[in-house]
Amino acid sequence: MNLFQTGDFFRFYRNAVTKYQLHSTFVFELACAVLDDERWFYAFRDVEALREKMLASDVELTVVDYGSGSRPFAAHAEQQASSKEKKRSVRSVARQSGSSAGQGQMLFRVASHLQPGTILELGTSVGIGAMYLASARREARFISLEGSPEIAHIARMNLDWLGLTENTEVRVGHFQQTLSAALKDLKPLDFVFFDGNHRLEPTLRYFEDCLAFAHEKTVFVFDDMHWSTDMAAAWETIKNHPRVTLTLDFFELSLAFIDPNFREKQHFNILPARWKPWRFY
Fold it and tell me: 72 pLDDT exceeds 80?
């Protein structure tokens, strides 16, 4: 964690509840599935085996960099209209830009529980998050957007290695050129994972773009909303959006829903029950 994340985590922890304080059946069941389900799946082993191979690779990639971004060396951070190229090893990209094992397993469990028929990911990187999502929902139509061609090639190789390419597509280019077509192709939009930009304005802009194609059961999943003041501000804006009726913040992942069945806005910071073992009521 960086300094901002560390401080924000203590604030998050102080105010967080566990599943035992949740009264909504939907929220309780989702929290149990994502945070307290201890089942292990073969997909976890397979994805992490590929991660280990990438962490041992010195192969150099020409990375298209669209800007410096809040997260250091975020190869998939699509920031500016102009771009520059630089050399980075597969090891470096996998270490600094891919979803962690814990976050990947949370993505797997969210997708497995909600059963989306269409999935959109903004920011493929080397495909770690994409592999977890595609493994959870092999039958779903899945499009992942990546700005750098050679990184996208690594992601495609990883997905192919796990036999996940039948319904999964990695598209390359600046989000401003690729997002609109992806949204039209995935309509209706069931599940969106935002992991391709770590600044306030682009995050909100892409959220609004996706919102135009959403329905009442769409879930918006965000990475790194506790990364910086920019991202924290973006999350507060999303929580206060007039169409957002429910948010669940698991710290590593933050979820927003627009389901009108939640008639009053509800916001929850939720931790695994074992992190607050004294909270049973």
Answer: no
> Parallel, antiparallel, or unpaired: how do β-strands 118-122 and 253-257 relate?
unpaired
Residue 70 has pLDDT above 90, yes or no: no
What is the mean pLDDT of the segment spanning 242-268? 96
Check if the beta carbon of residue 174 is closer than 8 Å to that of residue 205.
no
- 228: helix, coil or strand? coil
Cα 278 off chain centre by: 30
Which amino acid would we find at residue 149? P
Strands, E assignment, 24-91: 60-65, 84-89
Q: Within 10 A of 184 (CB to CB), how many other CB atoms are there?
A: 10
Q: How far is CA 240 from the centre of its chain?
A: 20
Q: Which residue has the tokens 């929220």?
A: 27
Find where tokens 């009521």 sit. Answer: 281
0.90 exceeded by pTM: yes
In this prediction, residue 155 carries a pLDDT of 97
Q: Which residues partner with 267 through β-bridges?
A: 247
Helices and strands in the chain, H and E counts: 10, 10
- CA count, 13 A, side-chain hemisphere, 258: 21
Rounded CA separation 235/232 (Å): 5
- According to the model, what pLDDT value does residue 99 have? 87
